[in-house]
Amino acid sequence: MASSAISLQRINSIWSGAEVSSTGAFKEALQADVLSRLWQSPELMQQLCSQPQSFLQEALGLSLPDTVEVNVLRENVGDTFHFVVPYRPSNSQALFARLEQMGNWWMVAHTFWWHLQRPDKDDFRLALQAMIIGHVWSDLDFKRALLANPKAVLAKEIGLNFPNRIQIQILEDTPVLYHLVVPQPPGNRHAADTSHLSEWQLSEWWMRAHTFWAWLNWMTLHTPLSQ
Fold first, then answer.
1. Mean pLDDT over all residues of the chain?
2. What's this model's pTM, rounded to 2 decimal places?
3. Which of 4, 31, 71, 198 has the fewest Cβ atoms within 10 Å of its own Cβ atom?
4. Which of 45, 63, 81 lies at the terminal end of a domain, its last residue?
5. Long-range contacts of 34-41 (CB under 8 A, 24+ apart)
6. In terms of domains, do 212 and 107 share one?
7. How far is 212 from 214, CA to CA, in rounded Å?
8. How far apart are CA 160 and CA 127, in angstroms?
9. Do residues 84 and 171 touch, judged by C-beta distance below 8 A?
10. What are the residues facing 85 on neighbouring strands?
């Protein structure tokens, strides 16, 4: 298994003459590129699942402490939706920095959904994954409610009901355990088709979009903050 197959060299870190390797946009581009290769290569997918730390180091340049375990899951569009709650920074300065990062992610998610959903409904709210995580971090009562009844709480947050068959599992990161959910490849459904989707179909679309959004931002969230 040649290491060059997941070399960082595919994404140029110099944009318009500027070094951008530390920016969120570069990390999102890098993760999108890696994801496209995971979809095309069962061998790379197996490498990620069996040796996640070494894969993340080689493919994304992300070094995690030896004490951290990475639990890799593959998105299941059947009956279980995994909603990962990232680890909350312990001090206020780090928390503010993460929330500021998530504020930038909201703009990415908003744009993504604005183009995929018809604008005659309030569907832009479906993109606010970052705001849900921020709510979990800042409101202990909301967190308890989410852990106790995730399906009802998320349905209220996004303004849609989930199909009865869907089970929602909350996976909470800790300082020594991270969860990484790999999205499934997109299907053949086009954005224009959303005008014919039922509420339950839209909620399933939201789950797919959330997993994709969380993947794009995983590297940024798990890169240590500058001191």
1. 79
2. 0.80
3. 4
4. 63
5. 34/6, 34/59, 34/60, 35/182, 35/183, 35/215, 37/5, 37/6, 38/182, 39/185, 41/5
6. yes
7. 5
8. 12
9. yes
10. 172
Q: Is 125's pLDDT higher than 50?
A: no
Whole domain around residue 40: which residue ranges? Answer: 1-63
Based on the domain organization, do 130 and 195 belong to the same domain?
Answer: yes
- Between 108 and 88, name the one with better pLDDT: 88
Dump pLDDT digits (tens) for 144-189: 999 999 999 999 888 888 888 899 999 999 999 999 999 988 764 4
Could you tell me if 174 and 108 lie in one domain? yes
pLDDT, greater one: 206 or 124: 206
| Residue 217 burial class via C-beta count within 10 angstroms: exposed 0-12, middle 13-18, buried 19 and up | buried
Among residues 25, 81, 31, the alpha carbon closest in space to that of 56 is found at: 31
Domain count along the chain = 2
Spatial contact of 53 and 178, defined as CB atoms under 8 Å apart: no
Beta strands in the chain (DSSP E): 14-15, 18-19, 69-74, 80-85, 167-172, 177-182
Say whether both 144 and 116 belong to one domain.
Answer: yes
Distance CA 195, CA 76 (A): 24
**Exposure on the CB side of residue 220, measured as CA atoms within 13 A:** 28
pLDDT at 78: 65
In terms of domains, do 82 and 135 share one?
yes
pLDDT > 80? residue 56: yes
Do 23 and 97 fall into the same domain?
no
In a domain, 227, yes or no: no
One domain for residues 4 and 28: yes
Structure tokens at 6: 């997941």
